[in-house]
Q: What sequence folds into this?
């Protein structure tokens, strides 16, 4: 019987290119299905890997709409008579940053702490009158002078703001990769620092209109004078790959011109590595629909205690791997083959 393995994704993407390369090297046939064909594709009896669609806008308000549409498309994949590497529900469960972080917190998982059990959102789409004041009241109440503000649904640092109010001086600073340009909140691939109150307030009003979670800004460990954290790809019960991310500022995403680093250069003690492994293992048990995920890990300055920043159900594209051994995708091809053999 011919294996029915499918990759659902976007034509021309690096994900497609290197997953198919891995399948070819493993001599396993995989059929590609573009998202434009997903609704009418026959997936019955197959094993499916879901890659994200590409977003066609840099306007974050429009991107919010595209993410909402993607969530609907994920739900449309349920009950298609197939087996998924990561289930649609599993992917969506961590796409929702608030509910993901809330579940982790309720189970005692070490995470970067949300300072409020609510999504902070303006009363009307595109407006945030009073929301900046509510943010400041929340920060004061929680004694948090430095926070990360993150849209509830986003990826790749889109719309993220690291915001700091310097106690006693009245000064403020914000770090972000988005700008308010021509009345639009635009995502860029460069990190900016803002220091002027009016410019920061305008940025915050736009970002808060998206609906955000607010997290305490935990100081990160450093390496050679730069902030550092980790992206761990966890799949099939083990850490498949780790890459350290360095930045001169608080936002470390690699596509923002930050530097990847061989994590072994950090010289982490075996006890710290074990804590990271156990943290990832226990977190993944809470999301049984995910066999693979990218987990961002903060190492606290001084103690190196690991905390989960967030989990990405499609966080497996690691350039340091695909341009080397391509082990992540090869493992996935092998696991899909096992799922197929168990399903027949």
A:
């Amino acid at each position: 019987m011919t294996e029915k393995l499918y990759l659902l994704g976007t034509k021309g993407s690096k994900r497609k290119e290197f997953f198919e390369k891995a399948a070819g090297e493993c001599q396993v046939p995989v059929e590609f299905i573009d998202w434009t064909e997903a609704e009418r594709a026959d997936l019955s009896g197959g094993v499916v890997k879901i890659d994200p669609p590409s977003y066609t806008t840099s306007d974050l308000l429009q991107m919010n709409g595209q993410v909402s549409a993607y969530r609907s498309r994920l739900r449309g994949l349920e009950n298609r008579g197939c087996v998924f590497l990561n289930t649609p529900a599993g992917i969506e469960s961590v796409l929702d940053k608030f509910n993901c972080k809330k579940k982790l917190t309720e189970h005692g998982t070490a995470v970067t702490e949300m300072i409020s059990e609510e999504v902070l959102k303006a009363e009307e789409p595109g407006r945030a009158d009073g929301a900046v004041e509510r943010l400041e009241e929340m920060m004061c109440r929680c004694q948090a002078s430095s926070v990360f503000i993150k849209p509830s649904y986003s990826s790749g640092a889109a719309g993220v703001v690291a915001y700091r109010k310097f106690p006693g001086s009245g000064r403020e600073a914000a770090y972000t990769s988005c700008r308010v340009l021509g009345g639009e909140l635009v995502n860029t691939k460069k990190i900016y620092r803002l220091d002027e109150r009016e410019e920061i307030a305008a940025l915050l009003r736009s970002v808060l209109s998206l609906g955000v979670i607010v997290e305490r800004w935990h100081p990160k460990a450093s390496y050679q004078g730069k902030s550092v954290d980790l992206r761990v790809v966890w799949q099939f019960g083990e850490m498949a790959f780790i890459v350290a991310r360095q930045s001169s500022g608080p936002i470390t995403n690699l596509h923002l011109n930050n530097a990847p680093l061989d994590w072994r250069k950090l010289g982490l003690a075996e006890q710290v590595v074990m804590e990271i492994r156990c943290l990832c293992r226990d977190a993944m048990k809470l999301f049984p629909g995910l066999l693979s995920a990218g987990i961002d890990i903060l190492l606290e300055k001084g103690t190196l205690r690991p905390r989960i920043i967030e989990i990405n159900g499609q966080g497996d594209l690691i350039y340091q791997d695909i341009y080397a051994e391509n082990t992540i995708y090869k493992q996935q091809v092998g696991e899909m083959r096992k799922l197929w053999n168990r399903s027949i």
